[in-house]
Design a protein that fits this description.
Elements: H1 3-14, E1 17-21, H2 26-42, E2 52-56, E3 59-64, H3 67-83, E4 91-98, E5 104-110, H4 116-129, E6 133-138, E7 141-146, H5 149-162, E8 169-174
Antiparallel strand pairs: 1-7, 1-8, 2-3, 3-5, 4-5, 6-7
Length: 175
């Protein structure tokens, strides 16, 4: 490596930057699922049915006697998540499947990390904006670097407005 390469790296490291991430608060997700399970156990309209909710790793499984019941459980869960400030856009909802008899289940995956295609979309939005910032995909996050703090703040606002379908947050802000 030549000395100019080393100098460029040092300059890049000292440039203001932040990471764009997609990380749900899994503790709050667990609490919301536990509250939902408790409500299902207490509600009169669920007595004697197979209505249940379960969280394993990042998969929520809803089970019930009919699609309608799955919908009710889903409503309760979303309500509890919202009250605990967990964005429901983290949920990747699967199809309702029959599991024997009259019972049905639905698997919901709690997404975390920015997928590569979403990372590329963020990079394209930044390039098209003509802001003096650059986005680099780093694993499941996107590092945004720029010359000025104002450019980075403008990039944050731009990303939030242009990619509303993802619950993105920003951390590791370095000035």
């Amino acid at each position: 490596m030549t000395s100019s390469h080393a100098e460029l790296r040092k300059v890049a490291r000292n440039m203001p930057s932040f990471d764009t991430v997609m990380e749900p608060d899994l503790v709050e997700v667990r609490n919301a699922i536990d509250q939902t399970a408790k409500e299902i156990g207490n509600r009169f309209d669920f007595k004697g049915t197979s209505a249940a909710i379960e969280l394993k790793e990042k998969e929520i499984t809803l089970t019930g006697d009919a699609d309608f019941q799955i919908g009710q459980i889903d409503d309760i869960m979303r309500n509890k998540l919202t009250k605990r400030s967990v964005d429901v856009r983290f949920l990747d909802v699967g199809k309702v499947e029959k599991i024997g008899g009259d019972r049905v289940k639905q698997v919901i995956v709690v997404r975390s990390g920015i997928a590569t295609e979403d990372g590329k979309k963020i990079q394209q939005v930044l390039k098209a904006s003509k802001l003096k910032v650059q986005g680099a995909i780093q694993g499941d996050s996107v590092r945004i670097t720029g010359g000025k703090r104002d450019d980075l703040q403008a990039a944050m606002a731009l990303i939030k407005s242009e990619i509303p379908d993802l619950p993105l947050s920003f951390d590791n802000f370095r000035d």
